[in-house]
Amino acid sequence: MTAIREVDDASIDGFLVAATLPVLVDFWAGWCGPCRLMAPALADLAAEHVDRLHVVKIDVDANPDASTRYRVLSLPTVIVFVGNEERARLVGMMGRPQLEARLEAYLE
Amino acid sequence: MEVVMPRIPLSNSAGDPYYRLIGHRPEILTAWAALDVAFLGESSTLSVHLKEEVRKVLAQEVGCRYCASLGLPGRESLDPRESLAVAFAEMVVKDHKAIDDGMIAVMREEFTDAELMELIAWVCFKYGSNMVGAITGLEPADGDDVAGYKGFLDRMADESATQPAPEPVLESQPVGV
Q: For chain A, N or C: smaller number of CB within 10 Å?
């Protein structure tokens, strides 16, 4: 069972406000090869750290408002929110080792 | 602007500067050219355009000025399949040890095993080709080299669609570096 939830323009703000754990938002699109290549690593992190981190994803093509409001200029972009505030932004493709290193503070 | 002279003089072999460099060892050059044709000719399972976009991304990353001067990546023109292939090549250059089961599974969703094996071999061949140019300090291509390379790709695209794979002809066929 996947630990990644889909959010959209209508639900993302409410999800971030209500979250009791840090939230990693994966901004992606179906045409984005780097996004697709990173997806399994994010799914693994979500499954392995389900008690430390919420992982959600949002399709930027179907949800242009959110990508504009969160100033997503290129894909892939991953943003970590804590208490509805942005704490970390990862732009560009990376493998699981680099993801874990960059997200270490939220996985421990 | 920094000018880096070639560290090994070009041989008198026929062909473009890259061929002339490898031409110090004619037997290797012949096999090298044949491998290029095997990748791009009739038997190829992936389009010339896809493989050229992969090559251009590698060229930007590895530091071969000659290879990079043959064309800039055209990311805006990629379809989802090409985008995935290019991303895979970028991952090889950035951190090939980070390529794991999950990434290969994604690739296998989009590519057949034959296509994926061709892509992996192409990435490795071109990565090595770019390393040759980077290590030897090969100078950027001139206008004739760029035009010759484009002509080579156009011929490969045509021939891979309609004709048996041609024999490598060193006098007129630049290496796809």
A: N
Q: Which residues contact residue B100 at a Cβ distance below 8 angstroms, ignoring those fewer than 6 apart?
A: A40, A41, A95, A96
**A69/B161 Cα distance (integer angstroms):** 46
Taking the C-alpha atoms of B58, B59, B61 and B64 in order, what is their torsion angle to the nearest 10 degrees?
140
Which of B174, B156, B177 minimizes the C-alpha distance to B16?
Answer: B174
A4-48: pLDDT as tens digits: 999 999 999 999 999 999 999 999 999 999 999 999 999 999 999
Contact B99, B92 (CB under 8 A): yes
| A87 and A22 Cβ atoms separated by less than 8 Å | yes
Residue by residue, DSSP assigns B106-157 as: HHHHHS-HHHHHHHHHHHHHHHHHHHHHHHHTPPPP-HHHHHHHHHHHHHHH
| Nearest C-alpha in A relative to B80 | A31
DSSP symbols for A64-98:
HHHHHHTT--SSSEEEEEETTEEEEEEES---HHH
Could you give the CA distance from residue A59 to residue A61 in angstroms, rounded to a whole number? 6
**pTM across the whole model:** 0.88
Q: Write out pLDDT tens, residues B103-157.
A: 999 999 999 999 999 999 999 999 999 999 999 999 999 999 999 999 999 998 8
Say yes or no: A98 contacts chain B, CB-CB below 8 A.
yes
Single-letter amino acid, residue B112: T
Q: Is A92 on the interface with B (CB under 8 A)?
A: no
Question: Which residues of A are the active-site residues?
Answer: 32, 35
